[in-house]
Amino acid sequence: MEQQTGPMDDDRLVLARLLVSALEAGDEGPVSELLDSLGVQQERSLFNELGRLTRDLHEALNSFRLDSRVAEITQEEIPNAKERLSYVVTLTEQAAHRTLNAIEDSMPRLSQISRQAESLMGDWAKFKRRELSVEEFREMSATLDGFLSSVQDDLAAVSGRLSDVMMAQDFQDLTGQVIRRVIELVQEVEEGLVGLVKVASERMVTGEPPKLEEKAEGDSSGKGYGPAVPGVDKTDIVSGQDEVDDLLSSLGF
């Protein structure tokens, strides 16, 4: 495929031919002037390309700002995402506290049951070896009676605490849904930013201006310059956009 050349390319080609002719003829007089002219042409070419790229990026940014979906994300969904993540943190903290409280309440009860059971096992071993006196047997019987009574209450309390731990884990379903929604939002914003990068790089790769999506007629989102940023006067935003447009237009882009 033949690459079309513009007027500036033709000018550089003419200057290059003159420079080659002067060098071949040994005429050093115009060489310096021709080199300076080629340098000026190159600077102009870079300036024009930079201007066109700036204009394309400016138009792409405007299109991105005017997208009603962007306004919705910026004004509603991102603040909502912050609230959702705060809600996730709150639920996680509550579940952690409930779980720790249940463990702290259950551990002493279980330790006491273990100590009492160990003591009774020793007395029971003596009883089987017929090493207990009548008085010691009576004491063991009283201890066993108290143990069976207390262990029932302790196990009921521990069972209730384990139920609390299980119920505390129900936050995972809610937080999982919230986190997945926030991830979807982040992915959507990422896709939009990647699109901007592609628009900005398309001219550099192909040499052609990027094709921007046209807004539907009657789209009210085209009346503004995107959502207002807190703490920033909207008139400043409009003025800044107009100044960029005027500057690019005055430079011929």
From TrEMBL:
Keywords: Chemotaxis, Cytoplasm, Flagellar rotation, Hydrolase, Protein phosphatase. Belongs to the CheZ family. Residues 208-240 are annotated as: Disordered. It is found in: Cytoplasm. This is Protein phosphatase CheZ. Plays an important role in bacterial chemotaxis signal transduction pathway by accelerating the dephosphorylation of phosphorylated CheY (CheY-P). The lineage of its organism: Bacteria, Pseudomonadati, Pseudomonadota, Gammaproteobacteria, Chromatiales. Pfam families: CheZ (PF04344). GO terms for biological process: archaeal or bacterial-type flagellum-dependent cell motility; chemotaxis; regulation of chemotaxis. The record marks Q177 as: Enhances dephosphorylation of CheY-P. GO terms for molecular function: phosphoprotein phosphatase activity. Residues 210-220 have a biased composition (Basic and acidic residues). Its EC number is 3.1.3.-. It comes from the Bacteria.
